[in-house]
Specification:
The chain is an alpha/beta fold. It folds into two domains: 198 residues, Spore Coat Polysaccharide Biosynthesis Protein SpsA, Chain A (Alpha-Beta Complex); 90 residues, no CATH class. It is built from twelve helices and nine strands. Strand 6 and strand 7 form a beta hairpin. Helix 10 runs parallel beside helix 12. The longest helix has 25 residues. The radius of gyration is 19 Å and the shape is globular.
């Protein structure tokens, strides 16, 4: 079969410490029909200089652009808008692909023309790139995505160009869950398929979204997204459960950011809509993670530094 062109976009904002590993993981791919676009989103550190060095060392293999800070969504949309590929993907500037990842994902999409999105399992790695554990994703289920708020695609997801052309990419007004909201829309267009192989690496560090202190409005962004989603399809079952889940995620985000009162308020809203969540061990685990994970990571990092 002919090899379709793949365009992979990396948006960069102040990730000079990790960017080299990201770039090297893409440049090491064995898939020749690969267009790689790296866009620096107004970084104040050495991110642009790092990217330019790799651009000079690998002429024709990556394109580096820069712009005033516009946010991750707008940056990705710019890259995908100028892409020439039939298949599109993105890779965060602190994550990596494993060798052969692009080739494998293209094989899956070529073998299954009805599939719109392919996603894989991935490794969790620490700030130094050490693999911590495997993250095995779920088989795709639209109800799990929209009702239980389980976002199956993670790092290493690839999708067909017409998904972007139809839906317009990520919403620039979203800062916390633009990827999840994009997959919600994409799920209405075509099938998703899980590739049960560890093809990417998701880096966990103090500056990553998993640990970052977030403003109050950003912590509750998932609630607004789900309220709008269900308002657009009145009468469809699952709305109350979904919005209750959204409030529980907002509670976790507030707890992670040290706002105990706001966390309790959101959890009360979740229980109001779905009292059974009080007995859901997964919800309590999620809340506990929100309250403890940042402190745990900082303790781990300080111990490692000592």
């Amino acid at each position: 079969m002919s090899q379709p062109l793949v365009t992979l976009v990396t948006p960069v904002y102040n990730q000079a410490e990790y960017l080299a590993a990201t770039l090297e993981s893409v440049l090491a791919q064995d898939y020749p029909a690969l267009e790689y676009i790296v866009i620096d989103d107004g970084s104040s550190d050495d991110s642009l200089a790092v990217a330019r060095r790799y651009e000079a060392a690998h002429p024709g293999r990556l394109t580096v652009l820069t712009q005033a800070n516009s946010g991750q969504a707008a940056t990705l949309n710019r890259g995908w808008s100028m892409a020439r590929g039939e298949i599109l993907a993105y890779l965060s500037s602190d994550d990596c692909l494993v060798p052969g990842a692009v080739r494998r994902m293209v094989e899956v999409l070529q073998a299954r023309p009805a599939v719109a999105v392919a996603y894989c399992d991935f490794w969790l790695i620490d700030a130094e790139g050490k693999r911590l554990r495997e993250s095995r994703t779920e088989e795709f289920d639209a109800e799990r995505l929209s009702v239980d708020l389980v976002c199956q695609p993670g790092p290493g997801a690839f999708f067909r160009r017409d998904v972007f052309e139809k839906h317009g990419g990520w919403r620039p007004d979203l800062r916390q869950v633009p990827d999840y909201e994009f997959w919600l829309r994409a799920a209405g267009q075509g099938a998703f398929v899980r590739v049960p192989e560890l093809l990417a690496e998701y880096r966990i560090h103090e500056g990553s979204a998993s640990f970052r202190v977030m403003p109050e409005a950003r912590a509750e962004e998932i609630v607004r997204v789900m309220q709008a989603y269900w308002a657009a399809q009145p009468g469809r079952p699952g709305a109350e459960h979904s919005i209750a889940r959204a409030y529980s995620l907002a509670a976790k985000n507030h707890g992670q950011s040290g706002r105990i009162g706001a966390a309790l308020r959101c959890f009360a809203q979740a229980l109001k809509r779905r009292p059974g969540l009080l007995f859901d061990l997964g919800i309590w685990r999620q809340l506990l993670v929100g309250f403890l994970r940042r402190g745990w990571y900082q303790l781990r990092a300080s111990t490692r530094a000592a």
